[in-house]
Amino acid sequence: MARDLAGRHEVAAADRSATALARLAPHGIATRQLDFADARAFVDFVRPFDLVVSAVPGFMGFRTLKALIEAGKNVADISFFPEDALELDALAKRRGVTVLVDIGVAPGMDNLIFGHHDAHMRVTRFECLVGGLPKHPRPPFNYKAPFSPIDVIEEYTRPARLQRAGKVVTLPALSERETVEFEGVGRIEAFNTDGLRSLLKTMAHVPEMAEKTLRYPGHAALIEALAQSGFFSTDTLDIGAVKVRPLDLAVKLLLEQWKLAPDEPEFTVMRVTVEGEEDGKRLCHVWEVHDEYDPVTGFSSMARTTGFTCTAAANLLLEGRFREPGVHPPEIVGRNADCFEYVLAYLKERRVHYRHRVSAQ
């Protein structure tokens, strides 16, 4: 994201990790090593800038966003924190700032697509199937995490909320596993995760909504076995003279097994289905993306599909194309046809192509 934005803007990046920041130095991006727990230093750092992109781990996302709003900054946020971002809407309006949250691939592009169609049709069903996978899976997990393992585990353990017959239903994560097929990939596994987020409020009028995560077959069962065995517990265990949280140990171990090598090929696939009535007809809109690791830039497909959506949103704000004060999830942005087309064009420029087909029901 920093490298993409630096093509048009003056960019500075802050992170606790000097190693992470060193990767930006060859690209003319100013850097500062900073622990965001130091609130004063954090606010001082962002003060000169017109916009902040927040991409911190989920567990610190809400408090970071609140601090940015209080500092009077417009924000594009992909921290994907578990708290309800709309709780900060009144604060953002009082401060006169515009915040776009969950503006990645999923949540993100699927919300934009949903909002775009909801503005033109009476939607009766929405489904998103999405996942990032290694090109060459290796047992036992057949998975590599292109982002923080703690956030992946959170996705696997937080109960999944779906909308069925107009009511919110809560099911265990990893539940209702099914096999689906994607062109160029083959048969993969889909299971429930808590990905609807803001849609449960903003799209409550749509009777059927679901989001499922995609993995190679067998992965979900293995993760479920770890969860049932207590490896993701946050309760402290006494191991001799040492106190350990199983979750911390699991993250430490999985970090090495799930880490993507710098040049390791992986891909992102997503299928978004929107059904309903439009112009007196029953229609089904399907959007799909299949994006792969870019060996020229070294950008992973998850970085491309997530990051470029976020930088497109950042440019929407910087160019004044979306100005409404408050906290806005992507489905609200997608209702604006110009904004929706801008994001699609921005992604296409970076060779992230969304294919759209529509059929009668």
Mind telling me which CATH architecture of the domain at 109-360 this is? 2-Layer Sandwich
Instruction: Note the beta-strand portion.
Output: 25-35%
Number of helices: 13
CATH superfamily of the domain at 109-360: Dihydrodipicolinate Reductase, domain 2
Which strands sit side by side, in order, in the main sheet?
A: 9-10-11-6-14-15-17
Compute the gyration radius: what is it?
20 Å
Principal-axes shape call: globular
Task: Give a quick rundown of the structure.
The chain has 13 helices and 17 strands.
How would you portray this structure in words?
With 361 residues, this protein is of the alpha/beta class. It has a domain at 109-360: Dihydrodipicolinate Reductase, domain 2 (2-Layer Sandwich). It is 32% helix and 29% strand. It has helices spanning 2-5, 18-22, 39-46, 61-70, 89-95, 109-118, 149-157, 199-202, 219-228, 246-258, 301-318, 330-334, 337-349, and strands at 12-15, 30-33, 51-54, 74-77, 98-100, 122-134, 160-164, 167-171, 178-182, 186-192, 208-215, 237-239, 242-244, 266-278, 281-292, 326-328, 354-360. A seven-stranded mixed sheet has the order 9-10-11-6-14-15-17, covered by helices on one side. Helix 11 (301-318) crosses helix 13. The protein starts with a helix and ends with a strand.
Q: What order do the helices and strands come in, and which of them pair?
A:
Blueprint: H1 2-5, E1 12-15, H2 18-22, E2 30-33, H3 39-46, E3 51-54, H4 61-70, E4 74-77, H5 89-95, E5 98-100, H6 109-118, E6 122-134, H7 149-157, E7 160-164, E8 167-171, E9 178-182, E10 186-192, H8 199-202, E11 208-215, H9 219-228, E12 237-239, E13 242-244, H10 246-258, E14 266-278, E15 281-292, H11 301-318, E16 326-328, H12 330-334, H13 337-349, E17 354-360
Parallel strand pairs: 1-2, 3-4, 4-5, 5-16, 6-11
Antiparallel strand pairs: 6-14, 7-8, 9-10, 10-11, 12-13, 14-15, 15-17
